Amino acid sequence: MKKKALIFGITGQDGSYLAEYLIKKNYIVHGVKRRSSSINTGRVDHIYQDPHVSNRTFILHYGDITDSLSVARLVKQIKPHEIYNLAAQSHVQVSFESPEYTANADAIGALRILEAIRFNKLEKKTKFYQAGTSELYGLNEKTPQNEKSFFHPASPYGVAKLYAHWITINYRESYNMFACNGILFNHESPRRGETFVTQKIVQAMCRIKQKKQKTLYLGNLYAKRDWGHARDFVHAMWLIMQRKDPKDFVIATGKQTTVKNFVNLVAKKLKIKLTWKGKGIKEKALDQKGQILVACDKAYFRPLEVNNLLGDSSRARKILNWKPKTSIRELVSEMVDKEMNETIG
Ligand code: NAP
Ligand code: F7E
Q1: Which residues have a Cβ under 8 Å from the Cβ of 55 and sit 6 or more positions away?
Q2: Ligand 1: residues whose CB is within 6 Å?
Q3: Span 129-137, mean pLDDT?
Q4: Ligand 2 neighbourhood includes 60 CB (under 6 angstroms)
Q5: CA nearest to 216, candidates 291, 112, 107, 307
Q6: What is the mean predicted confidence (pLDDT) over 218-231?
Q7: Does residue 281 have a pLDDT over 60?
Q8: Is 343 a catalytic residue?
Q9: pTM for the whole thing?
Q10: DSSP of 324-342, one letter per residue?
Q11: pLDDT at 175 over 90
């Protein structure tokens, strides 16, 4: 019998890679998408199967993580072996603008799924994965961060995810459920949302190369992130769920890059020569003709910044035998190639 997985957040970056991965592993994948006025399935259209096809391995359902009834109904109807909770308002800066919604989706959303498993008496059958984040470490700048490092979230997003982290552990300890957290550091891909910094840089630099845009405006150039590839990271999610005992794992590359260096890597790939000048908000990157290609804009600075993230994933490397396959240069190359191929002409 094929295993059934239920993915909340199927239309997102990770949901799409995870669905592809599980279909290849012979799962039947059920995904939850929310209703929107324009179509939001672009990342999974290539694996879509018409409802009239018999023995479908990819099935989409409407639902919303802020709607307990739809969550409970789907869990009851599908009775999945594995649930991956990837659904979230996942943008840190937006969480300062919409803190209440972020708490509802990112914190209580996890509780709704856990309760639906319990309410439907599926504790023994259904395993639960919670999409945890390096944003939990926040102001704890002591690197590298691992499963034992203390949490000090620095945004409504981070605080909401802290609740989700602990409620997952609480259900595991209270009800003996297989419920676990992957504490994933930043991971990117050509499918990354356009307002996250890596994709924003790639898209703008490609447009600059094609003379369709003059300047890229950014916020803090000196934030350091541990950037991996989403494809490698969804593999870790699956490995976490295959264990006999539920355990939480940090997933990271163990290598750190600043936002500014990410700009330099993209410029290098596009053969754009940049010269950096100035300091603070006045820092700029110019091309050989003296045109300003990159500048800072206060609008992109956050009320509170997470400056220094670098993960130590030795537990995952030892117990799960997981390690990242993609270097940051390969990641940049893949993102730039995809963008250039799509926008040529
Ligand atoms: P993403 O691209 O922003 O995808 C988020 C997904 O959640 C989308 O499918 C979105 O649907 C869905 N969603 C949002 N609100 C929802 C709601 N109320 N009900 C149902 N679905 C909802 O995020 P991602 O990069 O794939 O990340 C996946 C998960 O990992 C998120 O929980 C994120 O917080 C967490 N995480 C991400 C990273 C990273 O670096 N990527 C690192 C650590 C943790 P729409 O398409 O309709 O918006
Ligand atoms: O910012 C700085 C910004 O928005 C990265 C989410 O997936 O990873 C992601 O959160 C850094 C920050 O990602 C701009 O201040 C500078 O220091 O790409 P980001 P994030 O905040 O790290 C974690 C692990 C998650 O869990 C989240 O869901 O880049 N930065 N200038 C900028 N950031 C943005 N977005 N835009 C700028 O113009």
Answers
A1: none
A2: 8-15, 34, 36, 40, 64-66, 86-90, 105, 131, 133, 184, 186-187, 193
A3: 98
A4: no
A5: 291
A6: 98
A7: yes
A8: no
A9: 0.98
A10: ----HHHHHHHHHHHHHHH
A11: yes
